[in-house]
């Protein structure tokens, strides 16, 4: 399979037939030249001998010596020709032997390098059957080469989902049939022990000396790298303590949704949440308890509004939630649920059974005078301070 393979075989066959014809023609030419020289020698030498010797006895002796001379000359010539041919043949055989030895050493070296490489290496034939499966492939996948060599069942083991496996198979066939190449292509494989790993692949087609098509794949286990990358990406946009969005990411996301709502004419509300007497909590119970309280409030906030809004730690003990396409009455209702759940959670019960933890929440909705997110945030912050001034543990809207 694959373009170019039949052409390679037919070209080699035609080249071999041409070499055989050339050898036959050269042998025929040598034979004809030898025959012609022999005829000329016989005719010319007979005339010379007859002209030189009239005595019959002498003529007979001369004919005998002439014959021996011809045999000796042709023997020397034949020896020279055969010596050269046999010498060339011996040299050719010696060269072939050395080439085979070099090739064996090269194959041993190649197999050693392939087998001991710290990256996954496997080779496929034209039917996508495994022909090479190195130790790294065994270690990463958990499947021994005896289980996979000569078959294609490993694809079902590595890619148990039929749709996903069909997509991988299409890519492999494109490599084998069309010569497509992949670089850095990522897949998720299921290993023998059930682990799911992320692999990055480089793969390309090749033709062997017989013109048979195959492909070689180089795989690298990037599972840990991807995990670290995702963790770094998460840390870049989330508050490390509460897990909510950080202020920078909140302002980017919330401002984008704010502009969308302005353009579509949809409402847009914002909740500003402040933990009541948070400084006193830190002073009385310590900052570790303060951090636990902050995480507890953040968890309640995410549970109540996470599916509808964008929750973030804005700074200190201040948490905010942007609520795109949510009007003020619904926003205040959500704020009330948050307030009640925080109070019911009794986040300080382990430190003091009588200590109550509450939050004050300000709610505001975008109006025609608010042209950006910061104006809405200021309105929600002002509403939160009204809740504080009104006795805390309550939800307040605009004045």
Notes on the structure:
It is a single chain. The protein is an alpha+beta fold and about 400 residues long. The chain has 3 domains: about 5-115; about 120-225, 2-Layer Sandwich (Beta-Lactamase); about 240-395, Alpha-Beta Plaits (2-Layer Sandwich), CATH 3.30.70.270. It is about 60% helix and about 20% strand. The chain is built from 12 helices and 10 strands. Helix 12 (about 375-390) links the parallel strand 9 (about 360-365) and strand 10. Helix 1 (about 5-50) packs antiparallel against helix 2, helix 9 packs across helix 10 (about 285-305) and helix 10 (about 285-305) packs across helix 11 (about 330-345). The longest helix has about 60 residues, at about 55-115.
Concise synopsis of the structure shown:
It contains 12 helices and 10 strands.
Keywords:
399 residues; alpha+beta; Beta-Lactamase; Alpha-Beta Plaits; 3 domains; five-stranded antiparallel sheet; five-stranded mixed sheet; 10 strands; 59% helix; rod-shaped; disordered N terminus
